[in-house]
Design goal:
The chain is mainly β. The chain has 7 helices and 35 strands. The strands form 9 sheets. Strands 1, 2, 3, 6, 7, 8, 18, 24 and 27 form a 9-stranded antiparallel sheet that branches. A hairpin with a 5-residue loop joins strand 31 and strand 32. It is globular and about 70 Å long.
Length: about 550
Amino acid sequence: MSRAIATVLLLLSLCISTSAQGPATSAAEYDRSVYLAVNQLGIWIGNNGMLSWDSELRNRGLEFPLGSGKGLCFVQGLLYGHALPELCVGGATYRSGMQGGNVLSPGVAADPALPMHRPYTVLKLDLHDLLTLPLDVQQRLRQDFADWPVALGAPWVDVDGDAVYEPDFDAWIAGDRTVDHPRMHGDGMVWFVNNDLDETRMRALYGTAPAGVETRTLVWGSRSPAMERSLVFDIRVVNTGTQVKDSMYLAWFADPDLGDGLDDCIGYDAARNMAYVYNGRSQDDQYGIPPAMGWRLLQGPVYPAPGETARFDGGTLADHRNLPWSAFSPYIKSSAKYGDPDLGDIKGAGMVMYNFRGLGRKGDAWIDSASQTPTAFPYSGDPVTRTGWFDGVTIRPGDRRFLISSGPFPLAAGAMQQIIIGLTVALGEDNLGSVTALREQSDAFVELFNAGVYLDAEPLPARAAFSLDGLWPQPAREQLMLRYSVDGSDHIRFELYDVLGRCVRSVEAGRPGAGAHNLRLALDGMPPGAYMLFMRGDGRHTARLVLLR
């Protein structure tokens, strides 16, 4: 592909829409969308959590191949839910329970109308590519870079280690990485924060009250050959309330439409932890040879597991493991058994919770038609070899949707969970050949992802290798999550001091080894105020201010 064509494709990534999305709600006019097209995929991204939804055309917003006008998905997005202290289901499907902006304090949301709560776009460009873009697009990129919302949790590189974001867009675009800048993932990314404290929106979704959940979403893609048909959804979910959320689940909803959306089939690939969609016919009315598309769990929520190590927030978390997908729920239009959960009704929330647990909408077990045994993963057979229970046999191919979930786990007040999902599109010689190609292409991408090829593509400078990279939440309440980096074999200890210089809390981290790590610091019983947290190694230390509320 020529440089000129590549620049034209980059132009597409900055189409901005301020159209309302979803149902009419008290703040719908403040929903904002951007279009990211960094490789062969183009996707609409809304700060209300509705992804692949074109708010202008009110139609599917995941295009492949780029510039073709052909679409793959009507809408997709994160769902979450918990059973205690009360039933709650939030997130986004055909409606959104989320509004743009962060949570200021328990039960208090930031004003969604503020410009700072827009989606932010960063593209990896050189000076030549930047100057070929229209002036308004250049300015939009420049403004998003300058305003990159580090105070809201957006990932960034603090080059000088002073905890103050001091960017220089012109230096960065010229290749200078000695200035503070957003931490790049791939070649282009969009970041936004939202929350569920608009009760009208939450009631319109599945009839429940707000949970006090804040989510921070990063969508990114790469132009590299192994990822030119893939996107990554990296989402952090924060409990900003005052009570633990018990029996919590994180899930992904998708309504795929592969060209003609009335001849699709769906399935679950247990060996790859992947939900997928393919065409039920060898030819598609729009695509001809139809592609297949899969959603792979790259990193699940963390759960306590003594002696194990989980990946979390770009580092590791000791004595935890990452949960896999725990259930797959198919939805088939106009089907009593496989119907979608009821929107706008708390009965729908109950149906979703059943689906989270691997049950049908009425709490009945799924029965594998091949083995005649209960399963939490319908359609986990193989349509290529025609073995096991697969879609399109007892029910003809048609309009399909699905929900795939991970859990349950407790989410303490102030705590954060993370889920990373990789979407991949593949094209073979026919519909089933595309399924085979999807498996191979997804495997290649995941191998490189796990090796860290795309994550944190610009590492911290050497002088920041002994550092406290992140503290959250801020202000904190019952606990504080620390993200820190070590470049050697230091014995690490954390000490928290009050304004009188007294050490009021300490924790030993041992010798975690070189790399990025995470640790929880309990704060229960401590009065509100300002504290200083010291990270001490062998003959060196660093410190950060901590606020307790």
